[in-house]
Write a structure and sequence with these properties.
- By secondary structure, the protein is α/β, with parallel strands linked by helices.
- The protein is built from 13 helices and 9 strands.
- The strands form 2 sheets. It has a 7-stranded mixed β-sheet, with helices on both faces.
- Strand 4, helix 3 and strand 5 form a beta-alpha-beta unit.
- The radius of gyration is 20 Å and the shape is globular.
- The chain starts with 13 loop residues before the first strand and ends with a strand.
Length: 314
């Protein structure tokens, strides 16, 4: 029996704690985010990945009474939840559903020309992980969806059904680091001619049957990561979002990014390093910060988080 899906799988950025009838969301590394973002009144901020609203709430509290926050999330359900949670900040909060790759456009529509700080928390909330109908996890059976925004675009089932074998192998290797990607793709292509893949349990069990059951890590972990990243075009969106953020930040403005796997962290690291060499950014974290032992103990899903921060050179 395998334990909890490891950091290679999309890691939740939020711990959900139930106290009686209330659900309390605790976002990862909030203290470190606040220390580097430094929210203040009469300033404007962006939470590019609103999620359950934990970081957004902390930013709004710290920037009172006049700080403004533009909050984005690709998942319309997440936007609805965080808007309800943060209704007491309605006068200072603008929440929108959309991809942070289009950050500049969302800011312009909100009448924002520059901001003092931008946060990207690249994990997703436990509301998504723990919902079988979203198809992100194989802990519970559900449809092979994996889309953050379910209003359009191909699902993971579509990718599995339609992608040529060679291209599918490339996806599994590039976005999941799956060394046996060609064998998995070949077996998937053979199976789908007879029967389509429709559920997470079906795909996870099939991949486990190919690779065998070795160690505590589920054999389908890398396959699921690769499909989720590809379905949502996450790495392309991240590169575009970071570029948009740099164009929006005012002199002295701060960029804080929490990533959860090496593919994301490499993009963030290189972006900050390259623009630091050009004299546009000052690196605030020589090495990525990690959550403390106490946080990992209370929220094991935080253990792969890595925080990097930079400031626009004034």
């Amino acid at each position: 029996m395998w334990g909890e899906e490891p950091p290679l799988h999309p890691t939740s950025a939020t711990l959900v704690v139930h106290e009686g009838d209330r659900t309390i969301h605790r976002s990862v590394m909030t203290a470190e985010v606040m220390a580097h973002l430094r929210p203040a009144s009469e300033c404007v901020y962006v939470d590019a990945t609103g999620g359950a609203g934990g970081h957004a709430e902390a930013i709004l509290q710290a920037s009172g009474p006049d700080g403004r926050l533009l909050c984005l999330d690709r998942d319309p359900d997440a936007v609805a939840r965080l808007t309800s949670r943060l209704r007491s900040f309605a006068g200072r909060l603008t929440a929108r559903s959309g991809n942070f790759a289009e950050l500049a456009e969302f800011a312009a529509r909100a009448g924002i020309s520059s901001v003092h700080g931008i946060l990207f928390d690249l994990g997703f909330s436990s509301d998504q992980v723990d919902a079988p109908e979203r198809g992100f996890s194989f802990q519970s059976d559900g449809p092979l969806d994996m889309r953050y925004d379910r209003s359009g675009g191909p699902t993971a089932a579509d990718i599995i059904a339609r992608t040529p074998q060679t291209e599918l192998a490339d996806i599994l290797f590039e976005f999941g680091g799956e060394r046996r990607s060609r064998r998995i793709a070949r077996e998937i292509a053979d199976r789908r001619r007879r029967q389509a893949f429709a559920t997470t349990a079906d795909l996870a069990g099939f991949v486990a049957g190919i690779l065998g059951h070795r160690g505590r890590t589920h054999p389908a972990t890398r396959t699921f990561q690769a499909l989720r990243i590809y379905v949502n075009q996450e790495l392309k969106s991240l590169s575009a979002g970071l570029g948009a953020a740099l164009g929006l930040l005012a002199p002295g403005g701060r960029l804080v990014v929490i990533s959860f796997h090496s593919l994301e962290d490499r993009i963030v690291k290189n972006f900050i390093r390259d623009h630091a060499r050009e004299g546009r950014l000052e690196i605030l974290t020589a090495k990525p910060l990690r959550p403390g032992a106490d946080e990992v103990a209370t929220n094991p899903r935080s253990r792969s988080a890595r925080l990097r921060a930079a400031a626009v050179v004034a």
